[in-house]
User: Fold this.
Amino acid sequence: MLVCRVSPRRFQDVDDSSILGPHRVGRCCPPRRCLWGLVCLLLAASASQAAEPPTDWQSGDDYWRQLQLPVGVEWSGNPLRPAVRNLARNQRICIWLDRRVDPGHRVSFRSEGAPLNTTLQKLAASFECSAGFVDSVVYLGPTDVASRLATVIAQRGEEVQQLPSDRQTRFLLRQGWHWDDLTAPQELLDELANEYQISFPNRDRIPHDLWPVTDLPPLPFAERLSLVLAGFSLTFAWDKDGTEVRFLPWPDTASLTRTYTHRGDVDRAVRELSQLFPNSQVTRAGARIAVTGAYEDQRLIERWLRGEKVAVAGQTRFSLKIENQPVGGVLQALARRLGYTLEVDPALDAPLRQLVTFRVENATAEELIERTLRDTRIRAVRSGNTLKLGPKP
Assistant:
């Protein structure tokens, strides 16, 4: 487990973000005699930051694995942006801080041994925001954007398939992206327009702003532009030829519909997935499984159907060792923990006294129940928050 402890220095470097940007409007201007010194400091800070070498960011499966590894963080009154930048480089995980988040916010935060994704979620919550996990980038910003960003990007990615083949190839190509300190988002739009040979007819919806030095991993067009637009609560749509991109308001809802092949019992898989992912609609579509829901659920469902163990947000997992305990007592303890109501067939009086011995690691409630009853004559059927116990047929 890597522990990253950073203490604020006695004299902090000047952070240009503390005096520039729309979230700072209304602050008093510095006295005239200080302006020249302030400009010099800004230029020096800009030059030093621009000289930073690009980071070899984690991407693909390595990115998702890194997010699951434990990390220790301890900050005491550190400015948010430098603290997040140090954590990102330390973990080789690119972190995007939304322009509406105060980069000079003094953060006091401690997390020991939690997975990196959980740590970032807690960090974002500490300044009333959320973390969104997209391909190779972690976004920290307003909850209404963070909760839908990955799904909106996936929607734009699917729409690429409707464009002419030559445009598809161009838009799906992954490109790294780096810009220097005090870069305006309009300059980034110019760069995208030149690189992809496109136009933005309503680019006036992007107000003037100045952004800090940034280094992004290789990303396709939809993700690059979506990250720029996210801070303005905008998304986009292509014309039919893929040569014009128009900005649209951020959607109130977002979902994806995908179908999956499953070699096992399809009906049972539909029932189990419906319980594991209550925010997604899971149905049978012939011999396949249809899922309508967020990108995060889709990704986990695809892994679950491949036979992988997945950690579902909000899902309790168990690692414990049971030795010579009555099966009825184990089930009662589990029911109390999860808020289940037990309905027990009177014929189970003797089977519930059977002693069981087993051990599980990182098991879901369903997996723990199945393991508890594996060597017994008891069958469990869950209906909502009710667990019905009866004899096995």
Remarks:
- Residues 32-50 form the longest helix (19 residues).
- Residues 1-51 have pLDDT under 50 and may be disordered.
- The radius of gyration is 26 Å.
